[in-house]
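Before relying on records like the one below, remember that each one covers exactly one chain. Contacts with other chains, cofactors or solvent are not represented anywhere in the record.
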Amino acid sequence: MARTTKRSYPFELKLAVVKGYLAGEGSAGALARDHGLSSSKLVEAWARAFREGGEDALRPRPRGRPPRDGATSPGEPSELERLRAENERLQAENAYLKKLRALRAQGRQ
């Protein structure tokens, strides 16, 4: 069985085809053939989406799952950033304590 892949078309092509279709420049089938589209149903679906949502309905949407609500907000550092800052603070504290011990050891001699 042959696998088919879903083609995506650029926004500009979709917009040009839909505007031509709505202006009466040709039928859905003729416009699909002229622009090398796989089906006249695409033109009709794009025109329907354009009527309902305007140009934004033809723009590509982000794919995949949307981020969770519990994800870090833009002002809040991520866990990795928080851990790096804590690590840096602890390293500085450790260096300070080592230096303090060395100074105290020098004063006893």
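The radius of gyration is 31 Å.
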